[in-house]
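This follows on from our talk about sequence and fold. Can you supply me with one protein entry, sequence and fold together? Could you add the entry underneath, on a fresh line?
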Amino acid sequence: MNLEGSEQEPKFTLPVDSEHKSTEFKIQSIAKPHMLAFHLSWFSFFACFVSSFAAAPLVPIIRENLNLTATDIGNAGVASVSGAVFARIAMGTACDLFGPRLASASLILLTSPAVYFTSIIHSPTGFLLVRFFTGFSLATFVSTQFWMSSMFSTNVVGRANGFSGGWGNLGGGATQLIMPLVFSLIQDFGSTKFTAWRIAFFIPAFLQTMTAFLILIFGQDLPDGNFHGLKKKGEKPKDELSKVVYHGVLNYRGWILALTYGYCFGVELTVDNIIAEYFYDKFNLKLHTAGIIAASFGLANVFSRPGGGIISDLMAKRFGMRGRLWCLWICQTLAGIFCVILGLVGSLSVSVVVMIIFSVFVQAACGMTFGIVPFVSRRSLGVISGMTGGGGNVGAVLTQLIFFKGSRFSKERGITLMGVMIIICTLPLCLIYFPQWGGMFFGPSSKNVTEEDYYLAEWNSKEKEKGSHNGSLKFADNSRSERGRKLDISTRPSEDMTPPPSHV
């Protein structure tokens, strides 16, 4: 079904569906508005990631300057990811109501000062506070995924989310290279090491600030325009905050994805915080060498998370939503197994190889997760994205508090136990079930539930009379691809305005 008029087709460089979402993903393109939004989103998230983890590779220098204990470092690591827990949930709601452009740019500008202030701290408390407030910027991940889900159609949304999130997460690996290099260059110009690390923080701070202005100047919320303009024209209905939150919070699928994401992305955040210090201390490496090894973990995002999104899309093309669920469970479980092995091996070369394999699986699982998220709810997409993204930070906080705070566990032991947690917390994926598509172990409902039934259940009869549900109606039609080739797609439901059955 194509609901767009022929006179609108030349408006877009890329082919689009009935919601004007692009049905192609051309990474080399900067075509407005779809691909330009992609490049703005991943680069801004990349900058925020660099800022949030800029301290990690310099911890051996910073701990000497500020007299940090192991507990201080552990607390600061927890603080760096805990701030974004509620920020991500709030970001999801802000995206639903105001659009990803204003939501992300505002947060980036609000958190930039904390990065600048890192250069003037003189105590463990100051170190904890700047890492805490800088970490809020990681909530831009939610706006990134919301933006991509608003710009790209169901057949390519997995790879769009995978590339934007993965290339953004590259910041976690890039900062392991960037900050030691910048630190060394500043030292070469004559600064002492305790002055050089402070000056180095102006680089990520400036980069982060710049991306906010790029988004405001060149970004666009939706294929047809920005939220404010579309609402003013009456082309996008104004939604109620309470109902957006209500339909998101009551969808149990979002909570399960929040849990499982806590043990793929949450683990990735944890490793970003501890891996450089782990190799530096265990194998007596130079700071620069430890940074290069640690960087390889994050830099795997160049292909691993995007690869997860692509695999999710390919599995959906053949097996539908059930294929997306199965590939996520398999990939994340393998990540847990390799994480266990990483904590057990004692050779430097073997540790590096196992770490890289582990990084590929855990990051691919992140991409696969957001191949599923866009289908959980159409009306509350931002809330579900925020819940899932926030779950990633909760997982990071809990993991660091339990396994890497203080001296209760050695880092080797903590890594092994973290792997066990990954395997256990991935099991609930088998509970996710879509009545129109099925789940891991069961097929679609015998009650012939359609995509329209599922997505229109989020709107009441009065809202339908106003036409508020039209976006969900288009999305339902476009999401038929989640049936996969094996399911019968010959039946097309009538597009009346009657309320969906109560069992959805």
Notes: The beta strands are 433-434, 438-439. The first helix runs from residue 34 to 52. The mean pLDDT is 88.
